[in-house]
Specification:
The protein has 393 residues and is of the alpha+beta class. It has one domain: Cytochrome P450 (Cytochrome p450). Helix content is 52%, strand content 9%. The chain contains 15 helices and 11 strands. The strands form 4 sheets. Strands 1-2-9-6 form a 4-stranded mixed sheet. It has a 3-stranded antiparallel sheet with strand order 3-11-10. A two-stranded antiparallel sheet has the order 4-5. Strand 7 and strand 8 form a beta hairpin. Helix 9 crosses helix 10. The longest helix is centred in the middle third of the chain and has 31 residues. The radius of gyration is 21 Å and the shape is globular. The protein starts with 11 loop residues before the first helix and ends with a strand. Bound molecules: protoporphyrin IX containing FE. Protoporphyrin IX containing FE (HEM) binds next to helix 11 and helix 15.
């Protein structure tokens, strides 16, 4: 039996199991959460597009109050739709498209080059390097830390800290320990920025932000730091690992990215379809009334999985969906979710991924998998490659 919350389903097995579910319908009941209660999986692109836009039947704040609030604290993500509308814009100023465009060229490339400088001697000396701990995770967290204004000395611990924090439903003690660690790092920064503002998001929250008629308090700032570490950095880090995994296991696509940099954007968008880091998004149905989706009746307050990875491989929308094709048209991706909750970090994430790909292709064009095989991406909700040993030809 597959647990559709907690199992790993590595590599191609995930897509195969999703297609098997799809044979039963657009929306199916699956086993999850150790069989505690029925969970409904939305698989089709059509049904998911409608569900993502339907905040009445699937109120996002309600879901996040159950899955996020106890571990992350109160953020705009776990607020009901009315408060969410008031809080989200002022809390995300650094991540707006215009802010990201301004920082793009300068800072993202600088951060990428600093990390790749460290790998250069090792790779040119013939050594193997694991791209995930050495590059993709550090890069994603360095960028978020840079935006927020947090130190990076402990950047190698941030990915695990964020995963522990987020999955408190599975291991509460680990989540609380991660919270203590992150608070120990963040509180002194908040104090320092209170005394002296810098050009970062924490300073802007302290000095320039008023929400619901009041300044943003320390607990709220801490909760939003937890939010951007978990929703922002782990996702980007997994996407970047999945991107290099897909390209290095498809050497023709990698070669094309190296030889024709204009093809890199297509590779990036195809990765976001082929192996999105948020593979399924948990929701709950409206607590007040039963609902119907694609002809399936779902009782009130039921857990539902929004199958983003499944919809991105819906054969009704994407021909030959299990084929990684960097030239395909990916306009209808659901990777960042349409609707009120569309990912506010989508511009930053894509700039980040695009910069990482461009720099690695320029500096290490002969990069290849060290052992000829790679550890596959794993995970049903969040999906990522956890190790990618590489070397140069
Ligand atoms: C490739 C990387 C990323 C992917 C695939 C991704 C995907 C998503 C998805 C699917 C959602 C949920 C939408 C919904 O509930 O309907 C979401 C929400 C969110 N994401 Fe991202 N994300 C990524 C990167 C980022 C980054 C870099 C940031 C921050 C800088 C970020 C911050 C957030 C936040 C704060 C939310 C909650 C939005 C809300 O409730 O209004 N994400 N993301």
């Amino acid at each position: 039996m597959i647990d559709w919350y907690y199992d790993d389903l590595p590599g191609a097995r995930f897509a195969a199991e999703l297609h098997r579910l799809r044979e039963r319908g657009e929306v199916v009941r699956v086993d999850a959460l150790g069989g505690a209660m029925p969970v409904y999986y939305i698989l089709s692109h059509r049904a998911l597009t409608q569900a993502l836009r339907n905040a009445e039947d699937f109120p996002p704040g309600h879901a996040y109050q159950i899955i996020s609030l106890p571990f992350i604290g109160e953020t705009f993500m776990s607020m009901d739709e009315e408060r969410h509308r008031r809080w989200r814009p002022p809390m995300t100023t650094s991540f707006k498209r215009s802010a990201v465009d301004r920082m793009d060229q300068r800072r993202l490339a600088e951060i990428g080059h600093d990390l790749l400088d460290e790998l250069q001697d090792l790779l040119h000396g013939g050594a193997q390097v694991d791209l995930v701990p050495e590059f993709t995770r550090r890069y994603a967290f360095r960028v978020i830390c840079d935006q927020l204004g947090l130190p990076t000395e402990r950047e190698r611990e941030y990915y695990q800290m964020s995963m522990d924090l987020m999955f408190g439903g599975r291991d509460l003690a680990a989540s609380q320990a991660a919270d203590r660690e992150l608070s120990t790092i963040a509180r002194p920064v908040i104090q320092a920025r209170r005394a002296q503002a810098c050009d970062d998001q924490i300073s802007r929250w302290i000095h320039d932000t008023t929400v619901e008629g009041a300044p943003v308090g320390e607990e709220s700032i801490l909760a939003h730091i937890r939010l951007f570490f978990t929703a922002g950095a782990t996702t980007t880090s997994d996407a970047m690992a999945n991107l290099f995994h897909a390209l290095l296991t498809h050497p023709d696509a990698w070669r094309r990215c190296v030889e024709e940099p204009a093809s890199q954007e297509g590779a990036l968008q195809e990765l976001l379809r082929y192996n999105p880091p948020v593979a399924a998004q948990p929701r709950f149905t409206n607590p007040e009334h039963d609902i119907e989706v694609a002809g399936v009746r779902i009782p009130k307050n039921s857990p539902v999985l929004f199958g983003i990875a499944a919809a991105n491989r819906d054969p009704e929308v994407f021909q030959n969906p299990d084929h990684f094709d960097i030239t395909r048209d990916t306009k209808t991706l659901l990777t960042f979710g349409p609707g009120l909750r569309t990912c506010p970090g989508m511009h930053l994430a894509q700039k980040n991924l695009g910069t990482a790909l461009r720099l690695v292709a320029e500096r290490f064009p002969t990069l290849r998998l060290a052992a000829g095989v790679a550890q596959e991406p794993v995970g049903i909700l969040l999906r990522g490659t956890h190790s990618l040993p590489v070397t140069l030809e």
